[in-house]
Design brief:
The complex is a heterodimer of chains A (about 80) and B (about 200). Chain A is mainly alpha-helical and about 80 residues long. Chain A has four helices and no strands. Classes of the chains: A mainly alpha (about 80), B mainly alpha (about 200).
């Protein structure tokens, strides 16, 4: 029996995506989503949102930023060597 | 029984830390090479600013270098520097507190489910229609509108793949608070992106 309301689905979407729902709740949520287009859209687009942010190419480290980082560490290293 | 890839990485990392503690610059540089991209991305995600992200990156590794002797081998080096970077990032935001740019305090509670308002389906693969920089700007703008701890929870859990418990420990939050903030962050981002990516 599908006892899930739309509000309950929204509340549990995050737990579903994290695999935190037990089998009964998971099946109820899936049954609701299969019948309710609005909830299916919210579910699909929430998952897609996470996928977009997970793309490893986001915010690549610029070469000049990397060069300044390594120079700063080298400088600190030399200072320490000089003090010993 | 063979060693898992994660265990092999952790063991390898522990060897590098030991060598770096003993004075090997090459070992410390190797640790930097491994994690510099992730720490920069973390800085970008927390602060939303390239300049602040660079500061977070430098401060994180310089502090790690200075305090390497205090690092205890019972935790992973990577988890340790993520903690330093999160603190540096949140400190940057606190410094901006007086300028109206970023609210540091979470202005909304953890209770109740936000009501989704954008219910139209998205275009298929909207990211393929956009230049990389355009997509980055859209994602960054949406993330910037989140309260900082919501954004940080989202980043650590969904992008970095830390567990709920690890995220809670890093941020000094309860497991329940991490779950509530993650839930609201995901739905808020979805709502904002839906306005851009919806069909029609």
């Amino acid at each position: 029996m599908n006892l899930f309301t739309c509000e309950k689905v929204i509340t549990e979407i995050s737990n579903y995506l994290d695999g935190d729902l037990d089998e009964d709740l998971k099946r109820s949520l899936e049954a609701h989503i299969n019948k309710c287009q609005h909830c299916r859209v919210v579910f699909d687009t929430t998952r897609k949102t996470i996928e977009l942010y997970c793309d490893g190419k986001l915010f690549p480290l610029p070469d000049d930023v990397r060069a300044r980082l390594h120079e700063a560490i080298r400088r600190r290293w030399r200072e320490r060597q000089g003090n010993t | 029984m063979g060693e898992s890839p994660q265990a092999a990485v952790a063991r390898d990392e522990a060897v590098l830390v030991t060598e770096a503690k003993a004075g090997s610059y090459a070992a410390f540089e190797e640790l930097v090479n491994r994690y510099e991209k992730k720490i920069y991305r973390l800085g970008m995600n927390i602060t939303g600013s390239p300049q602040d992200a660079e500061d977070v990156l430098q401060e994180t590794f310089l502090k790690a270098f200075e305090h390497l002797g205090d690092f205890r081998a019972d935790s992973r080096f990577y988890t340790w520097i993520v903690r330093i970077a999160v603190n540096e990032g949140l400190m940057k935001l606190r410094k901006r507190r007086s300028s109206k740019e970023v609210p540091i305090e979470d202005t909304e509670g953890d209770d109740g489910a936000p009501t989704p308002r954008e219910l139209a389906d998205w275009k298929p693969n909207p990211e393929q229609e956009l230049a990389r920089s355009e997509l980055e700007n859209i994602l960054q703008d949406a993330a910037r509108l989140l309260p900082p701890t919501f954004r940080t929870v989202f980043y650590l859990r969904d992008v970095e793949g830390l567990s709920t418990e690890e995220t809670a420990a890093l941020l000094g939050l309860s497991v329940g608070a991490v779950k509530a903030r993650l839930f609201r962050a995901r739905l808020r981002l979805r709502e904002d992106l839906s306005r851009i990516f919806k069909r029609g």
